[in-house]
Amino acid sequence: MHLRVWKPFVAQIFLSATLISCSHIKPVDNKTETITKVKEENLSRNRAWMKDAIEHVDENKGANYIVGSSQINPSNYKGKTYFLYGAEHLKLDNYYFDMPVVYNKAVKKWIHYFLNRGRGFFERYSARGGRYAPILGKILEDHGLPRDLIFLAMAESGFQTGAKSWARAVGPWQFMPYTGKRFGLKIDWYVDERRDPVKATIAAAQYLKKLYGYFGSWELAAAAYNAGEGKVGRAIRRYKTENFWSLRKGRYLKSETKNYVPKIMALAIIGKNLKTFGFEEIDFHAPLDFEEIEVEGGIDLIALSKELGIDFEDIQYLNPEILRWFTPMNVKKYTLKIPAGLKDVYAQCCENRDYKAVAFQRYEVRGSKSNLYDVAKKFKIKKAPYVLASLNDYSSKKRLKKGQYIYLPFREGQSRKNAMYADLYEKPRRVVVRRKNYRKRMRIAKSRGKKIMSPSRWYTVRRGDSLWSVAKKTKTNLDTLIVSNLTILNRRQIRAGDKLAIR
Question: Where would I find the LysM domain in this sequence (predicted)?
Fold first, then answer.
């Protein structure tokens, strides 16, 4: 069998300001009036996608599928199509997809799950899909990708912009911080563009396009999206096959990745045949509808929303990437989405008014040996001390004086435990904490433990045992126990049946 040569890649950042919105065009000298007129008359690309999505929803009301996925009539469809073989007995309305979908044991398992125990999940995912799937599908199509890849986002997050995994993946496409930044998504203390359904979908389209280019298979591209291109590349080399279903039989890929592709396919089959599977009554959310305005960096969004006669939550809903109550302070201009129909209201009431954020809480310095970094650490913003430095126009290393007041980026009257600051105070999941503590304990043991060179006695691990309990039972020094059994402990924690050297 001839195997394609797979090489890891260094991703390039493709997104530019002009890709996202024409509102970033700057007037140039004597062309000021012309450019201003163009800015007023032309919709941004975001708005164009959104408008297309709304029209698509209006034209397909009552459709038997999640609007945003591909509509395929094989007699006149120009793109590549895939027929769902082996499922003819289901008497589906839609057997055609614009990406490979199969009907096998693994896919059936997930279909059964979403029709039974996971039925509520599917209904909620689909309802949110009414809001986001149409615009996601349009963006994917405009980037030359299958529309049915919206079901990958459905599998990742259930179309939630605020979704966050234990591994710190965020947004509808569940980007990890490093991958998100590689593909042009801005992530800092002020914003997290992984939450922006438009910008994140552009980044996901770029990433998926790259993955498909390397692997030549949507199944492998999806698996790599979940596990990483390096992991899938190594699996291909290990098992000498580029067939995902063959790779799935091996032990190298994690069960999460093995189930990921069939889960997407199950969602696609049900999502394009809602009535067949008994989902006729889904209450789809209304599609996104917004206008864009250009505002200053560092403006008070709560004050602006009051002037516009809307709730602050309306601003948050349309701009999920903004993490705080003000626009980012590290930019001069920011393109803000507001509810459709309010652009003229903004022009009349607010465009020429100053909404600079000033309602900051203050902290009085109690000691004489602290600096801004110490204050940032105290208020859980130590990963971004530049926030305090910018807000106070003060060097983060310069010594603070006792009694000096420091502005904090929390709003007056607002609890620091507000949901807006949940990212500052969230506690890691137990499994993450356990792994972290385990690695720390390994490091300590390696630095001070004495290895048993020629073991003469062994202990067989029983169910419920821990390293500490084994050390206590056998009266073995814990550090010695660890360094003497690193062939097991470097790979994983102990399991029932393991034999540990104790003397």
Answer: 457-502
CB of 272 closer than 8 Å to CB of 96: no
pLDDT at residue 78 greater than cutoff 60: yes
Q: How many beta carbons lie within 10 A of that of residue 16, not counting itself?
A: 9
pLDDT digits (tens, 9 = 90+) for 208-267: 999 999 999 999 999 999 999 999 999 999 999 999 999 999 999 999 999 999 999 999
What one-character DSSP code corresponds to residue 288?
Answer: P
pLDDT of 293 strictly over 60: yes
Cβ neighbors of 64 (< 8 A, separation 6 or more) are 93, 94, 272, 273, 274, 275, 276
137 or 370, greater pLDDT: 137
Catalytic residue among 33, 59, 141, 156: 156
CA dist 225 and 15 (Å) reads 19
Q: Which two tokens stand for residue 138?
A: 């349009």
Q: What is the pTM of this model?
A: 0.79
Calpha distance 133→284 (Å, rounded): 11
Distances, alpha carbon 358 to alpha carbons 294, 322, 335, 410, 455, in Å: 20, 18, 21, 10, 69
Q: d(Cα 127, Cα 282) in Å, to the nearest integer?
A: 6
Greatest extent of the chain over all pairs of C-alpha atoms, in Å: 89
User: Which H or E element spans position 82?
Assistant: strand 82-83
290-296 vs 458-460, strand pairing mode: unpaired
- Respond yes or no: is residue 280 known to be catalytic: no
pLDDT, position 475: 93
d(CA 380, CA 363): 14
| Domains of the chain: residue spans and CATH | 17-271 (1.10.530.10), 290-349 (no CATH), 360-425 (no CATH), 430-501 (3.10.350.10)
Q: Which two tokens stand for residue 325?
A: 């109550």
* Residues contacting residue 421 through CB under 8 Å, at least 6 positions apart: 380, 410
Q: Distance between alpha carbon 389 and the CA centroid of its chain, in Å? A: 29
Distance CA 347, CA 264 (A): 44
Cα separation, 220 vs 213, in Å, equals 11
Per-residue model confidence (pLDDT) at position 28: 45
